[in-house]
Write a structure and sequence with these properties.
Blueprint (H helix, E strand, L loop, with lengths): L1 H19 L8 H30 L3 H18 L7 H21 L4 H18 L11 H28 L2 H28 L10
């Protein structure tokens, strides 16, 4: 919509002004475009993280919010999943999803007999499906291999931390990692569904 375009134009203008005023020194035209794009993406990422952290603070769970975001962003970068049509929309979607997860962390408590199997199932699903690229975030075969390998390492590391947290009785760590893995499994499923909807004939990657 118009407001969406205005927000994106404002962010682009801020990035462009920083580059044009010589903030990064004397750059070639090509380097200026790269720097402007990087600044725009950075401002959007910071804005999304800021909204999420404010939501965690308002819900009085700042520590859990930070843990969840650390675990989630580390995995989301490489595992992929659903992405909105524009960077700003994606940042808003991520902030809204984080808010929903924070509500679950604060108000929803599942019994271990249910939460633990769900967490393991989510981890296995991510291991099998990652990375999930979409029309808005496509990956070439080489990137898929690298991203998939990194995503699997992160999943295994986070699952290991989850098991240690559960054994040591660290409920905060257990719940944060469980929520992260469950959210990422849902996000990957949404990405797969969106890709199938946009391109029903899409050939599945042999590694998936």
């Amino acid at each position: 919509g118009i407001r969406q375009d205005e927000r994106e134009n404002t962010i682009s203008q801020i990035g462009g002004d920083c580059v044009r005023t010589g903030f990064f020194g004397d750059l070639s035209d090509e380097d200026k475009e790269i720097a402007e794009y990087g600044l725009k993406q950075g401002l959007i990422l910071i804005g999304g993280l800021g909204l999420a952290l404010i939501a965690g603070w308002l819900l009085s769970i700042p520590g859990q919010a930070v843990l969840f975001l650390v675990f989630t962003y580390a995995l989301r970068i490489y595992a992929g999943g659903y992405h909105a049509g524009t960077p700003v929309q994606c940042a808003v979607f991520s902030a809204a999803a984080a808010l929903a997860c924070f509500f679950c962390l604060k108000y929803v408590t599942l019994p271990p007999a249910l939460l633990h199997p769900l967490t393991l199932a989510a981890g296995l699903f991510i291991l099998k499906q990652a990375p999930v690229d979409t029309k808005n975030k496509p990956l070439d075969p080489g990137e898929k291999e690298v991203y998939g390998r990194t995503a699997r390492r992160i999943v295994l590391a986070e699952t290991g931390l989850w098991l240690v947290s559960a054994l040591l009785g660290w409920e905060t760590g257990t719940r944060c990692i469980s929520t992260c893995l469950l959210f990422m499994a849902v996000n990957l499923a949404l990405g797969l569904a969106d890709r199938k909807r946009r391109n029903p004939d899409h050939d599945a990657d042999p590694d998936l």
